[in-house]
Specification:
The chain is mostly helical. The protein has 22 helices and seven strands. About 0% of the residues have low confidence.
Amino acid sequence: MWHDLGVREVLGRDENATITKLDQPDLNAVLRVTQIKVTGQPGNMQPLYFLIQYLFWPVVGRSAFMLRFLPSVFGVLVVVFSYKLGDLLFEPGTGLIGALFTTLLPLHVRYAQIARPYTLLALFGLASVYFLVRALETHRSRFWFGFVLTATLGFYTHYNALFVLLTEAIFAGVWAVGHLVARKKQRSVRGLAQAALGFLLVGLLCLPGLIRLLRLPWLGLDSGDGAAGSPTIELTIPFFRHFLYNSGIRTTSFQNLCVGLIVLGLVVTAYRRRWLSLVLASLWLSVPFAALALMRSPRPFEERYVIFLTPMAMLLMGQAVCAVGRFVANLAWWWRRWDICGPVTAILSLGLALLLFAALQVYYANGRAADRLDQTLRVVERHARSGDIILVSPRFFLRQLRVHGAEVVYLDEHLSPDELDARATHYRRVWVLYSSYLPSVELQEPLDRWVQTKKGFVRIPIKSIMAVAMGSLAQRDAELSLQEQIAVLEEMAQFSSGDSEARQRCHVLADVYGALADLYEGRGETGLAAEYRAKSEAARSTASCP
């Protein structure tokens, strides 16, 4: 969970949003902006993760490792609860193997290493179902309290915890019906009353969040303009293959192996007559997908929305491995009278773990290949030189810049426009790394507004809301300034990562080509004007490609 935690790039779109929301003057402001997207539209995020991270914010400083530390801790606790749940539903060996597989699953590792709430969602999902099963088995108040607490906290972590609650409610109903059919009337009535009270308390505690959810513009009845969206997924084989692919299980053979083991785990659970474990595992893996296939939403499906599913799938794989180990051991006992159940199970588990580890290596390799932040930083480092100043926003987490002669200032607070002017006036050229062009006023930062008021600054997008700006407050030769901008922009466009970013950078380059063409045309240098006009049209044509 902690490998490479502070080295890999921080500025993904979602982490940008987290940093922007945490970088607020007080807790009330954090809670207020939690409900706003970076686009300025109403957001669908719940506040608990941001509340916890804000309390931890003073410890973060400028450390990417510390920024991601809490999600990684939640990821470790997910592994712990995976083991506990496997021990409860199946057997200790299943819990241990399933926890190992969860630890190595790329989907889990990915979201344990970014500053977002998804591992906390998985943690509360697994904890709540663990407490629910224990409460239904023992009827003890402390387990019902644990269920109500973790289920409520899960809901205030992310709205997708409703899928967990729906699954748990159906499971509790099946449990009650099963006890009634088995004629355990007194015990089932008591358990049903406790379950009803527990779910009622969860509903009452979640009521404020449910009211807000119903007020979100895209959740209500379709007004006829398509605002309510369409069903999120289609339950087809290609969809589930895509789900496994994005979870890190990429090859068809490995996908088939994992699905086969999951099915075998369900069959073994049924063979051993652990009916409630079978029902819970089946509901856990099916109900969220069924709900997503029926509900309408404008948001496309992402694997992280059901991240709580994968530990159960890993536990079923662990159950299958244990069963295969016992089967092979029984054959050996019949043939040679050797008890080799433990070694065989360990070898099978290690083999699957190595396959998951290989998938994890591919994930890390792909992440490094797509590291557009580092590509951008290298361009800045090559072009910044003596007489330049680089201002780095408090919201911009990055490695130490390696420049020759330029001064780098890592701001630890937001400066006023006058303070920024005082710093920048004495330098030949100013570079600014900052969060930029956020529609919502609450999310904007002074560096953004300062850059927008300065003529001659060119803004180069990096990702989503992050940008590099370059310009000068000193009087400089206009031709030289534009040529310097072009040298940087041409290299930035060459090293763009992704079509969207490349188009944005080509548009910026086309504008600067056009400005230089206008300059030459004003001087009567028609040849140079025509040359740069053609370059501008070529860059804009490239940028216009879908």
